[in-house]
Amino acid sequence: MTVDLSGGTVTTTRTEPTAPPDDRRPVIRTRGLRKSFGDLEVLGGIDLDVHPGEHVVLLGPSGSGKSTLLRSINLLERPTSGSLVVDGHEYASGTAHPRGTPVRLRRTVGMVFQQFNLFPHLTALDNVALPLRSVRGLSRRDADERAAHDLDRVGLLARAGHYPAQLSGGQQQRVAIARALALDPQVMLFDEPTSALDPELVGEVLRTIRAVAESGMTMVVVTHEIGFAREVGDLTVFLEHGQVVETGGREFYTECRTQRARDFLQAVK
Ligand SMILES: Nc1ncnc2c1ncn2[C@@H]1O[C@H](COP(=O)(O)OP(=O)(O)O)[C@@H](O)[C@H]1O
Ligand SMILES: [Mg+2]
Prior knowledge:
Layout: E1 28-37, E2 40-50, E3 55-59, H1 66-73, E4 81-86, E5 89-90, H2 102-108, E6 109-112, H3 124-134, H4 140-153, H5 169-182, E7 187-191, H6 199-214, E8 218-222, H7 226-232, E9 235-240, E10 243-248, H8 252-255, H9 259-268
Parallel strand pairs: 3-8, 3-9, 6-7, 7-8
Antiparallel strand pairs: 1-2, 1-4, 4-5, 9-10
Bound molecules: adenosine-5'-diphosphate (ADP) and magnesium ion.
Adenosine-5'-diphosphate (ADP) binds at residues 37, 40, 42, 60, 62-68.
């Protein structure tokens, strides 16, 4: 498969048929997932299935628990209770099964944050290559080669030697996407990946994410870009106060069932 993620033409030559999503084990499966900070319950029991190749959009007002849900799926937050199964391994506490380690989980799940979290003292290439060496154990040479490949995928090979301060916000975010892709995750989590960008830089990052989606990557995306959400979201999950209020396919954007979701869409459109 050859995919150009630079925001230009997508040339995917995938030949293998994609299985109907429901025929396959979910990559992510949460059941009754809860998270509290002290007395504050932020996730009140979330059931979510993300199937291979599926693109799930998480919507909800500020403070509804979207980031906490993504961070719990990546064990950046420890769920208080409930079940979190990723790639067939149970990671949450309170279950009879052996738990997987955060290290194993993060080999499966890639994450892209609102703030790009690049190391300022490393070039674009080294930002992508560093985790390949530290997490994947690649030699410097192999890591650099793979990093160059993934910078090329996001259209930034020519900027490989640039430091983050020499790149626009959109380019920095594309480096962060390349860094996550380089680790070959089975699923990518995006937490408001364009919210920190100037408006004129949003488009290039959305095009890159769209191309990642079209490459067949499984993903969960938190975004307030409703046009993009509607286009990319096979499944949309609307959260409020740490609860799933409504889920739907593409029809969610035109005929959602709950007043809460209608009000939200009206406000962000
Ligand atoms: N580390 C934390 N400690 C205490 N409260 C937190 C922490 N992280 C998030 N919260 C609270 O959890 C709620 C949900 O936050 P968050 O998941 O960031 O929502 P969203 O991403 O939907 O805006 C908010 O009330 C927030 O203040
Ligand atoms: Mg958030």
